[in-house]
Amino acid sequence: MFRGTGMDEFAGCFCCGPRPGFPYAAIDAAASSSLSSPTNIEAMAEAGRPRVSSTSGGPVIDCHGHYTTEPPEFLDWRKRQIAAIGDASQAPSIDSFQVSDDRLRDSVEGAQLKLQRERGTALTLFSPRASGMSHHIGDAGVSTAWSRLSNDLIHRMTRLYPENFVGVCQLPQSPGVEPKNCIDELSRCVNELGFVGCNLNPDPTGGYWTDPPLTDRWWYPLYEKMVELDVPAMVHVSAAANRNFHTTGSHYINGDTTAFMQFLMSDLFTDFPTLRFVIPHGGGAIPYHWGRYRGIAQDQKLPLLSELLLKNVFFDTCVYHQAGIDLLTQVIPAENILFASEMVGAVKGIDPESGFNFDDTRRYIDASVTLTPDQKRAIFSDNVQRVYPRLRAKLSS
Amino acid sequence: MFRGTGMDEFAGCFCCGPRPGFPYAAIDAAASSSLSSPTNIEAMAEAGRPRVSSTSGGPVIDCHGHYTTEPPEFLDWRKRQIAAIGDASQAPSIDSFQVSDDRLRDSVEGAQLKLQRERGTALTLFSPRASGMSHHIGDAGVSTAWSRLSNDLIHRMTRLYPENFVGVCQLPQSPGVEPKNCIDELSRCVNELGFVGCNLNPDPTGGYWTDPPLTDRWWYPLYEKMVELDVPAMVHVSAAANRNFHTTGSHYINGDTTAFMQFLMSDLFTDFPTLRFVIPHGGGAIPYHWGRYRGIAQDQKLPLLSELLLKNVFFDTCVYHQAGIDLLTQVIPAENILFASEMVGAVKGIDPESGFNFDDTRRYIDASVTLTPDQKRAIFSDNVQRVYPRLRAKLSS
Hints:
Two copies of one chain form a homodimer.
Chain A: E1 12-13, E2 17-18, H1 22-35, H2 39-42, E3 61-67, H3 72-83, H4 101-109, H5 112-119, E4 123-128, H6 130-133, H7 140-160, E5 165-170, H8 183-192, E6 197-200, H9 220-229, E7 233-235, H10 247-264, H11 268-271, E8 277-279, H12 290-299, H13 305-308, E9 313-316, H14 322-331, E10 337-338, H15 362-367, H16 373-387, H17 389-396
Parallel strand pairs in A: 3-4, 4-5, 5-6, 6-7, 7-8, 8-9, 9-10
Antiparallel strand pairs in A: 1-2
Helix pairs in contact in A: 1-3, 8-9, 16-17
């Protein structure tokens, strides 16, 4: 028997993927979970405890934060959009979405901003809720409108809090639709809204994996634009529409592992020497199996992974225990690791073993006994500015 | 551009899975890679080096070995079977497969048996090549004949080498076909051939994941038989038919991660308190993200993972570097870890960083500075006999 959550209820046929029905549950779950006193807020009672001092110096920049506390008006708009699938005349216009700045402030003041202050994070690369992208819902038109609205909302947050948030955009991907369809929205977000990167979904189907791998020429026009704009992508799947997968527990991690292995077996970075990807959630399973990947590459007569991939592929620190972070920092060069917490994200509670929030990942880096102060500074601050040059430009201006 | 191998060439339509065409490449690749001086054999030149002494005592039992050096006659039979898909009158009979005992001995003497001797492994739970199961090829009839032949071959190996090999069977799974269809073959292998467990594929489609999750009642009749026979299953996917996945690099690891998360979100072990699963490849991504899984369970108001799952779920040690094994043994209780190497398997070369084969996993356990001698003995010998009681009975008889 399956103990599902709204976010991962099965809603697909056995062949061709999702059906309407799922999205409502997902949205309902999202609305109820994010807007009614998030668990993490309750957990903030631990804020008074002394934290381990950082020896790194420099600002701490979180490269992976999602707007997971959206106001209900926003989720209502999405509900109406989904309800209108199949009858475009009923679809809400982007302009029909209205919410006050005060409502937006309320949505983050007690959440992301409070956590930033408590944890000593200077700023967050902020993008729409990852599971909310749900590229499998509706067609490319639905995805385009939803992405535009989501990115506009992020843009408002970056204007309300320019010291705290820098924008990263959702792309209007859709199953079976060529990624070049995303170029206009990427350009708009970077050139007009000041965003510094994008989230790229390697499986817009939500767990059926029927689009081409990230290394197929299918994706090349989008990569050309990323290179031209000099923005990286975080590889990030969205909600699982396939009931075999739990969104944050397996689908996210599998997406990370899958993307890395696609890169390993490809010539992608020969074709695009400056293309850059961040693999979130600590790189999925990759660092844990680093010997396996080094060995597979060697069996294939490929160069060392450091030469083959590590000029183009980076890992974030969304690994929620000290042992995991210690492994990550032991096997992956520090210059390839970017600090991140994914907060307010996948895990909200306090770890009874440590007494602190699982997703308070700064503590694990601070507590590392093998990283040097220079390496910690690289992970907290320098690397992200190198990988996201438009962020560096913002910070320098 | 994708640098594929025969084993993971794309051969599926974008909707409904594999087409003929793929299997030939897979078989060709398997035949050529396994039968022409495997790399690992060449790597055996390192055998003379002194190895770290085991402080564990007791026999070292490898719970995860595949027959990956099958004789060409066997692979030829499979080619003929695949060629006859769609024209059953051309299908080869099981009885038409003929190979001498000498040919079988030749296939393992210089490979698995030599490695056992060199590495000090007493015996191996031996099953058919995992990628060779390829349940996505053909229908249930094809899978049944192929499984029967594959299991019969394993049975011959266990009779030729009763001190070295104990059988674990392949199941005749097929996409969309109820798992109860596997009961007869499981019973035959256990009751007639003396096998002690089975390999269970959580995704018979080869990467499209369109069958129900392992926690669905779809699987319950098979679980009832497993419980009755008191045999565990190793959760093990087969070859990837979906070009998004690399068979050993991502599909295997994703299968492991997915299965654990299905178990976590289910009441399966309430319904089957004595059902047991081994998750191979070090548990996929699970131990690396142990904090994430503890946190997700806590957010869901579930019991501690130790209570929820660890009476029923076990992890093997197929993790090919010291840092990975150290993490595994740090976060997972020693009583839940079973020694395994997956040899001759996914990675065949020598790690230039250690000077030893990547898959010589005994060295990592031996070298652990945190495991006690009792814990090492549990991992090498005791646990596997507890999880596979029919193995214990064999060793006691």
